[in-house]
Amino acid sequence: MTGAHNETQNRTSYDVIVIGGGAGGLNAALVLARARRPVAVVDAGEPRNAPAAHMHSFLSRDGVPPLTVLETGRAEVARYGAALVRGRVDEVAPGADGRYLVRLDGGATLTARHVVLATGLRDTLPEIPGVQAMWGKDVHFCPYCHGYEVRDRPIVVLGVHPASAGQALLLRQWSRDVQYVAHDRPLTDEERERMDARGINVFDGPVATLLHEEGRLRAVELADGRTLECSAAFLFPEMTPNDAAFEGLGCEQDEQGWLVTDRAGRTSVPGLWAVGNVVDPRAQAVSAAGMGAAAAFALNHDLVDEEIERDLAAHRARTRADRSSKAHGEPAPAA
Hints:
Layout: H1 6-10, E1 13-19, H2 23-34, E2 39-43, H3 66-79, E3 83-86, E4 89-94, E5 100-104, E6 109-117, E7 121-124, H4 131-134, E8 139-140, H5 143-146, E9 155-158, H6 164-171, E10 178-181, H7 189-198, E11 201-203, E12 207-213, E13 216-222, E14 227-229, E15 232-234, E16 238-241, E17 272-274, H8 285-327
Parallel strand pairs: 1-2, 1-6, 2-3, 6-17, 8-15, 9-10, 9-15, 10-11
Antiparallel strand pairs: 4-5, 5-6, 7-16, 12-13, 13-14
Helix pairs in contact: 2-3, 2-8
């Protein structure tokens, strides 16, 4: 990843550094670069949605491979002069004059007035044989992203998370053939009644393996030997925010450990912003892109306000000096 202009490639000091080059980070950088801000995007090249073949529910990008969307986004950002840096951020730390130090793996250090964290989250999958191999192919998380593609086909939902029952009930909207395997999340009586009302078959006991051939899911095999033929399986992974770069900076977190921001993406620490899945595990790519744009608008206004105050202080100092010089009959100081 390289910038479009030499002056952006060689500098180490920016108005804004965006950590993470997904939809949220790139859209923030796009808005800021168009506002003529020196901005850099530091990205490790590990997008969460890389295993998926196509992106959905993103207006004008529906059905496009996610890596193609990111490639297009990088080209658009670079066209406006933003620097694109391939690397991993080890630490963000306070620096001099209110700036932040952004230290990269390998030793390089960049500085910025503001930092936008757009590093997403990481999914921890259950240790069920076949899940990792089929993840992003025929094993999915989001019904809104992939439910339409498996409409009217047999679907199995793996009960591996407190939200799994709700996931099964939701998927019934896309197919009449939905089966729920409790695995390690047995249903409550109320949940079982809801499944019955929706015509969802429930199977107790753990999953043994996912059976797949030639890269396609064929069935879910239970520990007791039964097999449930299906075209797709859905599960709710454990999600953890990739927010280590802001660790130790005092940003407020909620009870679940996620960064707290206002509607524009400001954290509780001035100059630090966060957008996308790193603050909202439910955000799709289109949502993250919108969050990135909203943060960039607000961030640029904050920078303008800072600059106005700086310029106003300088202007007032010059005015006082000019008046003092006139009062003593001295020539006015040079601007």
